[in-house]
Amino acid sequence: xKAMSKHVxxxxxxxxxxxxxxxxxxxxxxxxxxxxxxxxxxxxxxxFVISGFVVTSSLIAKPPLSLATFLSEFYSRRLxxxxxxxxxxxxxxxxxxxxxxxxxxxxxxxxxVRRFAFWGLSNWKLQDLSxxxxxxxxxxxxxxxxxxxxxxxxxxxxxxxxxxxxxxARRQNKSAxxxxxxxxxxxxxxxxxxxxxxxxxxxxxxxxxxxxxxxELSTGVLLCLAKDSERFTRWKKxxxxxxxxxxxxxxxxxxxxxxxxxxSVWLAEAKSGPWPWILLPVSGTVLLVVAGESPTDFWxxxxxxxxxxxxxxKRSYSLYLWHxxxxxxxxxxxxxxxxxxxxxxxxTFTSLALLSYKFVETPMRYGIWIGRHQAWRRNxxxxxxxxxxxxxxxxxxEYRSSLSLSVVMNSPRxxxxxxxxxxxxxxxxxxxxxxxxxxxxxxxxxxxxxxxxPETLGTKKVxxxxxxxxxxxxxxxxxxxxEYGVEGISYVKPGCGFIDFAKPLADPSRTADCREFSxxxxxxxxxxxxxxxxxxxxSFRIDHFLNPKGEVQVKDLWRALYSPRYEVGRAxxxxxxxxxxxxxxxxxxxxxxxxxxxxxxxxLYRCADWFNRNNPICQGGHQVDREELEKIRxxxxxxxxxxxAEFNGVEIWDPFQTLCPDNPCTNTREGRPLFIDDxxxxxxxxxxxxxEFKEIMKKWVGPGDATH
Length: 708
Fold this sequence. Notes:
alpha/beta; seven-stranded mixed beta sheet; two-stranded antiparallel ribbon; 59% helix; elongated
């Protein structure tokens, strides 16, 4: 086997490296600030077409080989191109994210996406999680960008087989080549149709699925195969003739291609996803690649082949790998607002990219020491590298609590309510509690079954229904089950408030899955609950100052919640609540409304450390005026009070006084968190609230069911 070395590739075109530079710059600028280049995310589509064209060009240029040798050589080159840089990036990013990114809602998918990224399958995981590329959780996941590498790696399973068939057919006859070309074109067309269909029905599939992206890479492949055919030779004589009119035609084609690229990255809207804007970068790239085949120089070709763009294009893979995790890390720490953070992030990821290009990417692609080994040995080595990288990162994540610099990870039991009361000081537990889990109607059910209890303990059940406010209440139910033998069943669907006094349960503005969950769970609870059982109703019934990213979305909650346009919905919600309570009262079921708890102006878990407390998202501070919050929640309290006066067995538990005994309200107490973010109660808050919750519940489901 001859040693690999830097050599002149007969298929190399500097203008294509220039296209790569435009693609990666578009993506980077978009990620730095989306307002600067709204359609910059379409740069990946330029990459897809280029990848299909370049990979196919290198394959058809090979001498005749057996299928096994053909595939082995192909994969050794592709793995050398992709895997070393990817594994190093994933490993370094895992270390940095372990140090600076706490486990929380915004980071809940990070580990699973990382694992899949090692094997080129992260797009599957992101699709499985039903994430869109523009969702908050993806913006804060340092591994999200690997989805496009997954698309390419999966495409490489199919592409070499198609090209091999083409090479074989080319030696046979024109009919065979037409058959291969036609069959592949049919697959590409089917992918295009799927992309259009999924864009409307399942945007996450349209974005992340190979089936919806196959046609983009196939466009590059088909372009290369067409160029390799005899028919293209005749077109080439027409297009690339030396006369002035032909030169003008080619220059015009290239100019149009560049205009299409510019229009796509400048005009596209991220909220609409890739379709139909995706047609512009794909068409523009095709025109530029075709025009670039001309031996004549023209201004667009000179621009793309300029030394600066070619230099960037050669390093585009490393720049793509490193820019995103650094930008995400900056979002989790110092933020990206202002010239300083932007420049520091730009310097950091560019430096890492250049180091990776020089010391990882280039040696692994062209190093003589690698070229000494046969292709199958190189392939095996790269697979082992993947396994070692995955194993090392798993080990790092296993010890993340002790390695992390975040106070959130250093004391996790204070922060996250995970189903069971973690504090022994909450009270003596006389029962063992077994937890069982289920997923009814798109929600999450936790069943608390007390066992080994003294005979004198309670026999009643407590049901809990609500949105993510239920998680903190679950700790109270678990402790109640342990102390008093009370069986508890909680149903939660995040973002789906139950009797929120804002709009009816069946309101069309609620998502279809939320309406189904609310209808089915409420009906099932009324069927299964017996006289004397209790239904606890915690939900977030007032809006929040911040959006999930921590950015201010509402400055004046009073005006946002109680403007005249919402009054009809609020009145209907009260009627809706009354109808449901009527059914509960008919069965003798007790109902406990949980009154609105405070909402804060910063997300505590992202503002609690030395490295993130100066992030612009923390500018709201850690306290809110108590009188403002009292005013905001007053209408909801009045609705609850009116219903509790109307129905026997309906009470209100108001944790507000305990959480906010003084003015202003704060999100910590004695250095411990009362909130996780800006509105979710922490596990420590559950410990603080349990004594008063227990006193309320003892009246209904206490020892020996004395009140029954």
